[in-house]
Each structure stands twice: as structure tokens, then as C-alpha cells.
Amino acid sequence: MTSSMRLLARAALVILALVSADTAFAQYRHSPPPSTYSSDELVNSGHRFFGNVSRGLALTIEEATRRWGQPNGYILGQEGGAAFVGGLRYGEGVLYTRNAGDRRVFWQGPSFGFDFGGQGARTMMLVYNMPSTEALFQRFGGVDGSAYFVGGFGMTALVADQMVVVPISAGVGARLGVNVGYLKFTPNATWNPF
Known about the structure:
The protein is of the alpha+beta class.
């Protein structure tokens, strides 16, 4: 290859790089709104959903965003559960995302541990690193702890692949214990927790 051909090839690569950079900048400049939710947006949504426990909710959301950043989805719903060493948990709600719309979801799961009692709760679940809404439909495992009589508020973290789901619950009932288990998310209601 002659030196003039090498020079021409280098010039073509430089022009190609400049065009690519300009295209990327134009896409960045006209990109859609961010796909994550800020703490303020989550607190406002939670305040409308939970009502009078919003101060505790705000502190819990701030702690979750400090640990894991801004979620790219969240679920608002309700759930119920009971345990006597082994337990079951069932819930339903709506998954909210910026880019994929809203979608009804259901969850259920078993647990095992030193855990006794029952509760009903309103739940907000922050969803992190969700590549698509379909990716939510799997099992998320973790450790959960509960300690309340009549009312309570708590946060846990469940993990599957690179995704993290952080349920934040405000409930009523009487429950005490620590358990290991998982939640299985499904697009349709089912009684099968496994």
C-alpha cells in the first residue's frame, strides 16, 4: 500500500469517526426523558398511595436510592401473608415504567425460618436494572425480617441475575421473625407459590 493510499484511508477513518460522533451527540441531544425515577417522584407517588405513613416512606426511599441508585421501575400494590415457621405471601399490583408503560403483575412465594404471625400490607417495590418488563417474571430470593404488632413499616431487598427488587411495605397485623424465601412474579394470578 502506498503512502498516499494510507493517508487517504486515515482521512476516511477520521471523517467516519467525526460523523459517528456527530450522530451520537444529535441522538443524545434529542434523547427521550430519563428511564429512571428520582427520589422525589417516588416519594410523591408513594405519598398518594400510602397516605399518612409518607414520612417513614420518604426516609425508606432515600435509604434505598442511597444504596442502589434510581430505579427504572416501581410497583404499587397490596399483599397478604402468614407464617408459622413456613409461610406464604401473595400480592398484586401495577408495574410502572417510563419506556414500557404500565403493566399488572402478581407475586407469590414461600418462606422458611423463625417467623410467626400474619399481615396485610400496601407495598411499593422499587425495581433496579430491569432490562425489560418480561425480565421481572422470575424468582427473586432474599432474607426478610418482620417485627410489628398492629402496624409496621419495613424494607427488604430481593435479587435475581443483575436485577434488584426492594419491597417497601406498610402493613397491619402481628408478625415477628426472620425468614429466607423468594418471590415469584407472574403476569397472571396463581395460587401456586412454587
